[in-house]
Amino acid sequence: MSIDTPAIDWAGLSPYFALLGGIVAALLSSVFLRGPARNAAGFAIAALALLGALAAAIALAVVDETGSGMIADSLRRDRLADVAQIVVVCAGLLAALLFVREPDAGERRGDAYALLLSAVAGMALFVAANDLIVLFLGLEWFSISLYILCAVTPERTRSLEASLKYLIVGGFGSAVLLFGAALVYGASGKLRFAEIGLAGPGSDRLLLVTGLAMLLVGLAFKVSAAPFHMWTPDVYQGAPTPVTGFMAAATKAAALVVALRFLTEAFPGEAALWTITLAVLAVASLAVGNLGALVQRDLKRLLAYSSVSHAGFLLMPVAAGNALGGRALLYYLIPYAALSVGSFAVVAARERELGRAVTIDGMTGLGWERPVHGAAMTTFMLGFIGLPPTGLFLGKFYAFSALYERGWTWLMIIGAVFTAVSVAYYLGVVRAIYARPVLAAAPAGGSPPRDTAIDVAIVASLVIAVGTFFGVDPLIDVVTRAVADLTFPF
Amino acid sequence: MILASLAGDVLVWVVWVVAAIALLASGFAVVLFRNPFHSALALILNLGSLAVLYLLLSAEFVAAAQVLVYAGAVMVMFLFVIAYLGGRADAPWASSQAAVRVAAVVTCVVLLAEVVLVIALDARDGLSSAAEITEGFGSPRELGRLFLGDNLLAFEVSSLVLLIGAVGGVILGATVRRGEVEE
Amino acid sequence: MLGPTVAAYLVLSAILFATGAAGVLIRRSPLIVLLALELMLNAGNLALIAFARQHADSGGQVFALAVMVVAATEVVVGLGLIVAMSRKKVELDVDALTELEG
Amino acid sequence: MTAAAWLALFSPLGAAVALAVLGDRISRSRAGLLVSGSVLVSFVSSAYVLARLLSEHPEQRSHVSTLWTWLSAGDLQVGFEILVDPLSVFMMLVVSGVGFLIVSYATGYMRGDDEERRYHAYKALFVFSMLLLVQSGNLLLLLVGWGMVGLSSYLLINFWHQRRSAVAAGKKAFIVNAFGDATVALGLFLVIQRVGALDFATVFGSAEAEIGRSNTVAVLIALGLLGGAAAKSAQVPLHTWLPDAMEGPTPVSALIHAATMVTAGVYLIARTHVLFELAPVVLHTAAVLGGVTLLVAGVIALVQTDIKRVIAYSTMSQIGYMFVAAGVGAYGAGMFHLMTHAFFKALLFMAAGLVIHALAGEQDIRRMGGLGRELPRTTRAFLIGTLALAGVPPLAGFFSKDEILANTLDGGPLGIVLFVFGVAGAFLTAMYSFRLLFVVFRGKQSEHVQHHLHREPNEGPLSMVWPVGVLAVLAVVGGLVSVPGGWHAVDTWLEPVSRPLVHPAGWMEAFSPILSVCVALLGIAVAWRLWGQASDLPTALARRYPLATVALERKLYFDEVYDALLVRPAARLAVTLERVVERPIVAGSARATAGGIRGLASRVAATQSGLLRVYALVVAVGLATLVLVFISVR
After folding, report:
1. B1-93: which CATH architecture?
2. Phi, psi of D305 (to 5 degrees)
3. Measured between CB atoms, does C90 come within 8 Å of chain D?
4. Same-domain status, D430 and D573
5. How far apart are CA A367 and CA A283, in angstroms?
6. Which candidate in D623, D627, D629, D632 is best for mutational testing of the A interface (most A CBs within 10 A)?
7. Ramachandran region, residue B182 (left: φ > 0; alpha: ψ -120 to 50; beta: rest)
8. Are A228 and D179 an interchain contact pair (Cβ–Cβ within 8 Å)?
């Protein structure tokens, strides 16, 4: 019996192979090595694999003039995927730096690197998915890796708790997404995105929109859009901080890019429906995220709510459904990812210093004790508000322009109003950073040694966040090309 | 000829009805049994009746995989863990928040009604007739061809996901060794 | 096609999905919640295979097999977590442990 | 020349960054020196730019310098660019010049404060933001500076974060300013949509062709800009943040809010006057807002008892004049008053600071009195400032205020009304400013003064005294750059950028000063009668008109109205959401994690048990709703 195996585009798959090689090597090293050597080897392998994947993705982004399908067209090789992979891989790199001295991970660190690589690989696949099967598999791949990563510090009960919560609610979301995918498949008889979109105005529209509703819920769940966000604060708070930083940046980026690609390609005929739905979800996220953040004391929880509110901002350009919105989304994601990882990196550093969970009061005096961390955190908080000098300033501007082009001024105004609300809690953090400690918050067990890795991560995030502000032009060029292949409904 | 076909049809109907009843009953049982061990056993029955339905839908290979992999391997692990946890695995059935339970049931019923409505509306046209299938539909051979052809990627990625799951199971399940040298 | 139409299978699948969802929403034991999640995923599988039959397209079956693998993986991870939690609190009553996340 | 402008812009930023990075590694006095040095560099560079511009032909005094193309999306090209022209140089000089004096003063005033370095860093940031605002070559960069000014002022206002009132004041200022930012941003969208560019030359060049005159879009654009201007310049009804902003370190940040930041609105109108002129309705609205503000603030200033608040209300009132000027199209007159106001208001604040310094932080004028004998130099400085503010010739305020009044006379019927407002305002100004002078420096010393006055050889450290001297001189002679009937240096200088719409005739230039001087003298006389000598007339008046007094003391209830309309509903919503959504669903888990690793009590765990299901339940409800909506619209 002869089987025509599809042509394998080795070059196009190079980022995946770099990551897969890293996973295998990290697992082996964690089996065969012990003690400090294991940690060092794990980090080295993870860094090498991620840098390799990054280089490959950048090379592809340069080379890929036009997109093409890989492995019987189940995977896309195009600039959208490349750019999304660059974002995800960079988030992974920064998170790997945070793991270097994560005290709770203990001897599990070697495994943690493998799982981190696995999560990155799953997301890299997810963002390039071109059919429902790969979409679902990619989603589950990185989700399962994240469930395990959350529990990688089993000495902390609450990280187990976070993990189980994430697994159960996440499994629920996945099951909903699966059922939706089944209905869409039933309605169109196709699995490839483009073919679903081309299935034409047949008789099964009802089935199709029901499936679409379920798929939207599944994706909104991963984006942490309200009202499907409720796992976010618990999981962000309970998970080890490096994992939280990675999740906040990468999961959202991946899910949004997929939403952009999937919705525009597979559901052009239902565009009015999904754009309005996303707009409503955006408003809900803005309201829930911003109001929820106002009453938080725990910093990780506060940042979790902030990420819910940014899910709202990020959904706005997708909801606009036009090319400008696509560009705005991609541009917004870059500084947003840097701000997220960076702010969690500062939290991680502070956490290790104090030896306990960081509250807003726990930030008191940071600006004086560690000027660089303080200045960086201040920049991150201002960035989240949308103030210069971080790229989010222009990101919000772009997102609003997309809405304006769509004619949804009302949504712009809602966004502006909630930006004003968000000022209160972000500036609360800034105020604490530069307050003089009333009582010197003595670090538990003396000051830990300077953690070079975390400093590198913080400075790198800062450079990216600020760099996107000053280097807007080349980035706009990149994202414009990235979404050039998509056909937008509006 | 017609008679034979009719007899076949009746037979299929009988099998379907039995399998459907078993499926729903065991599904309810999974959710309603007090003891997780019994629930797990009910799920095995559920998976079995699903396999029968898959056969009726000409999905031979999937049915076989369902019985061998799922009902076999996975459920064995489930039962093993439940046995490991012993009597401690018994969890109170009742919720402390009755309101949540009521709301949950209402929501699920509403959801069910919506989906059934959609199917019913669709059944008049799109779903009323199924396409003709060829001889090899659903056979291991056909699926093998797909898995090594059009869906090669799905095949490879599935195995990777399984690998990660296995690693995760080991990581989570392993006892944390104390006293290991930390840097 | 012999027997009932595809729509009948779909209704079965919908009922199974709702049953599983209800199980997740009302049960307190994480073990049973995991079992209920399996019900939901299997409901999706049934729908996939029914649609595969309707369209005479094996793609749905491939999807179902992939889902099976994913479901197995979720079970492995979920069980690992439950075991780790029970280990963590050997001295505690497991009833309390299961209540924690039920 | 543009290189010098860039240097002026970036030198304070460099100082701020250096202070942030150095942290505790730089000594306090060095930090102060660094910042004042950096602002001095800005001032010198600005002066150099001015000298270079002067040597050029008036119509060619406009230079754009682009560092790099900042963003280009489709046809829209926005560079990171600055514009050097008469208007921006004028503002650069005011900002960096007065800024330098403030910063130097602050090194003395803040000495010994725990967080001196932070203060200096904030101030450097403020000067940078302000320079960015006035130097930017396009609307987007202007918006960046606009936002950063709001931010740094927030940081300065709640500098003393231990004080609840300071924190509240900072928040209020930021929110009002953020509102203004938002309206400006919305205006910019319309500009982008219509004109497709943001740089000043293109926008102003093609505005009339692309936008049209007096249509909805033109009005909306101008309204957006006006919203920002009114918020930043504390004009009614967006003024409530300014008096509260006096919570900042006395009186340095107050000074920033008086002499520089609040004038940004006037600058914005002058800069974008082309857009405003496309919607004369809005321009007139600005003038009316200014007119109302100058009266309202003048009246409220009459009864305030905090020395800084009196000056703050006076600031609002004076900026009202500038809005009136800009609103009738007398941009040069507005900018002229902006300059002289910066001189004498800075002088007043600094003198007030000396008083507060001498009284160990006391700000209530009822606990002052009779300071004239104790602090002769301060008194002289204060007197000069007061005379200039009241518009007594030949001090600076006289010339600039009367130029505004003369210009309004040419502004048609509306102008006449505004003229009346302005004259009434002049009366009020003279009255409240002399009230302050009399109450603080005359009469007999209160007990507080006798106990707390601490004398220093020069009535303050040298670093605080010399800026006061410089400003006193400027407040005296600063008005001579523009003399009615003689020459109009400011007008002429700004002519190429913002051509005025009104041209007062000779009789107007003669009539208005005479009238306003008479009115001012009358105001001084009334103040003398009421507060200049021992008299119980003020209390008698207050007893006679209790309602009016209370209304004024409560600042005409603006805060109360906002509180009832906006703040309290929002707070109630947040609290309700917290009670209904947050606490039952989320707080439980927070408690559980706070309880620590081992302390997961079973009771807490029981609370937890509901949570997860609720999360999933919400997902399910959301799903059911979404499906229902989807199938019903199909």
Report:
1. Up-down Bundle (1.20)
2. -115, -5
3. no
4. no
5. 34
6. D623
7. beta
8. no
- Site from C32, C55, C74 to mutate, B interface, most B CB atoms within 10 angstroms: C32
Chain C positions touching D602 (Cβ under 8 A) are 93, 96, 99
The neighbours of chain D, by the rule of 3 or more Cβ pairs under 8 Å, are: A, B, C
Determine the residue among D591, D607, D609, D619 to mutate to test chain C binding: the one whose Cβ has the most chain C Cβ atoms within 10 Å: D609
Cβ contacts from B onto D, under 8 A:
34
Distance between CA atoms of residues B42 and A153, nearest Å: 34
Based on its alpha-carbon atoms, the radius of gyration of chain C, rounded to whole angstroms, reads 17
Asked whether residue A287 is assigned to any structural domain, the reply reads yes
* CB-based contact D614 B111, cutoff 8 Å: no
Is the Cβ pair A295, D574 closer than 8 Å?
yes
| Cβ–Cβ gap C80/B166 under 8 Å | no
| Boundary-marking domain end, from D514, D538, D553 | D553
Q: D8 near D46, Cβ under 8 Å?
A: yes
Residue D298, CA distances (Å) to D433, D537, D556 in order = 10, 20, 12
Domain boundary among D490, D522, D553: D553
Which ranges of chain B have pLDDT less than 70? 1, 87-97, 124-130, 175-183
The one-letter amino acid at A61: A
Between D448 and A449, whose confidence is greater?
D448
Q: Where are the domains of chain B?
A: 1-93
pLDDT digits (tens, 9 = 90+) for A286-327: 988 888 787 778 888 889 989 999 999 999 999 998 888 999
What number of residues does chain B have? 183
Q: Which residues of D touch B103 (CB under 8 A)?
A: 617, 621
Residues of A in Cβ contact (< 8 Å) with B81? none
Mean pLDDT of D586-610: 35
Domain limits at D592?
Answer: 557-633
Using one digit for the tens of pLDDT, what is the confidence trace for A242-267? Answer: 999 999 999 999 999 999 999 999 88
Q: Tell me the pLDDT tens digit for each residue of C41-99.
A: 999 999 999 998 888 888 889 999 999 999 989 988 988 888 887 777 632 222 333 33
B132 lies within 8 A of chain A by CB: no
Q: Does C100 touch chain D (CB under 8 A)?
A: yes
Structural domain containing residue A255: 14-482
| pLDDT value, residue C32 | 86
Q: Rounded to an integer, what is the distance from CA D91 to the centroid of its chain?
A: 14
Cβ-Cβ contacts under 8 Å for D143 (sequence gap 6 or more): D181, D184, D185, D188
Higher pLDDT pick, D613 / A89: A89
Strand partners, A368: none
Same-domain status, D523 and D545? yes
- B180 touching A, CB under 8 A? yes
Number of structural domains in chain A: 1
What is the reported pLDDT for D598? Answer: 27
In this predicted structure, what is the pLDDT of residue D497?
Answer: 76
Cβ within 8 Å, pair A178-C67: yes
CA distance A210 to chain D (A): 6
What would be the CATH architecture of the domain defined by C6-101? Answer: Orthogonal Bundle (1.10)
Six-digit token string for D515: 């009238």
Residues D598 and D544 occupy one common structural domain? no
Question: How many structural domains is chain D composed of?
Answer: 2
Pair A64, A11: CB distance under 8 Å:
no
pLDDT attached to residue D166:
77
Contacts of B171 in chain C (CB under 8 A): 80
User: Of the candidates A148, A334, A178, A168, which has an alpha carbon nearest to the alpha carbon of residue A249?
Assistant: A334
For residue D566, what pLDDT is reported? 61
Contact between A154 and B176 under an 8 Å Cβ cutoff? The reply is yes
State the chains in contact with C (3 or more Cβ–Cβ pairs under 8 Å).
Answer: A, B, D
- For helices D280-301 and D216-232, angle between their N-to-C axes, nearest 10 degrees: 20
